[in-house]
Amino acid sequence: MKIVILSRNPRIYSTHRLVQAARKRGHLVRVVNPLRCFMNITSSNPMVHYRDEALNDVDAIIPRIGASVTFYGTAILRQFEMMGTYSLNESTSITRSRDKLRCLQILSRSGIGLPVTGFAHSTKMSAKLIEMVGGAPCVIKLIEGTQGKGVILADTSKGAESVIDGLAQMDAHFLVQQFIPESNGCDIRALVVGDKVVASMKRVAKEGEFRANLHRGGTAEPVKLTHAEQDMAIKAAKALGLSFAGVDLLRSKDGPLIIEVNSSPGLQGIERTTELDIASMVIEHMEQNINRKAEYRG
């Protein structure tokens, strides 16, 4: 296969590992910066150009599109889709997952367990919003934050109202979410490839921090998921249309709760924690999907 990885930096661990795994399995692979691409939008011959070259013979795309370039990156991916190119995760699924509000609404419609979450436009609703999620402490999240950025724990109702007022003044969109104390500064990352969880790890926040993201100084250890947790992670990825996803969940007294679904999950932390070759699993999944697509056409 001829594979293009849409990534701004070939030296990033996840991009490098996917290149490694694809070449090991005999594929031709290259890394293309989506911001260096431009497109010809036409019904007769849609095309994506990279610098001075037309990318018209690509079999598969692996999107590694950062949150800061979601709009343009998914536009380029959408153009490849118009050309009939297979994508590991499709553009619509990526945009669904990147918008935390839209993501949670889709998961809610699918009956997937979530922390109680509120959203409002007017700060006049702040007190009711905080009360609705169980009062303080509560979690306030920017809708488009990543890696724990833009996530704030408000210990008091007054503190929560102050944060909401400050965000509103910056015209930022945010969610107010129930705090799950029994999670005790831990969350679980389940990595879904296709229709199964291939790896999972528990992330533990550093002392004095409630966010367990490894980018925030958290530590990780392998963890075995319950059947309910596995089923929920797979169901969440499918609800968003993702065939490769990092599903983050909390263990609560009411069972597992999904807090986020990542359409471009990093491989470094989970490969090193579990000692599994996840990059090769991703490439193998792509091979199977493309072969099935070819058989269907035949």
- Just name the CATH architecture of the largest domain: 2-Layer Sandwich
Tally of structural domains: 3
Approximate helicity band: 25-40%
Provide the low-confidence segments as ranges: none
Sheet with most strands: strand arrangement: 14-13-12-15-16
What is the strand content? 25-35%
Distance between the termini: 18 Å
Mean pLDDT over the full residue set: 91
CATH topology value of the largest domain: D-amino Acid Aminotransferase, Chain A, domain 1
CATH class category of the largest domain? Alpha Beta
CATH superfamily of the largest domain: ATP-grasp fold, B domain
Global outline? globular
SS summary, helix count? 9
Task: Please trace the helix and strand order, writing H or E for each element.
Answer: EHEEEEEHEHHEHEEHEEEEHEEHH
Structural class: alpha+beta
What is the makeup of the main sheet? 5 strands, antiparallel
Let me know the number of strands: 16
Q: For the CA atoms, what is the radius of gyration?
A: 20 Å
Task: Please write out the topology.
Elements: E1 2-6, H1 13-24, E2 28-32, E3 37-40, E4 47-50, E5 53-54, E6 60-63, H2 70-82, E7 86-87, H3 91-98, H4 100-109, E8 117-118, H5 126-132, E9 138-142, E10 151-154, H6 157-169, E11 174-178, E12 186-193, E13 196-204, E14 219-222, H7 227-240, E15 244-252, E16 255-262, H8 268-274, H9 278-297
Parallel strand pairs: 1-2, 1-6, 6-7
Antiparallel strand pairs: 3-4, 4-5, 8-11, 9-10, 9-11, 12-13, 12-15, 13-14, 15-16
Helix pairs in contact: 1-9, 2-3
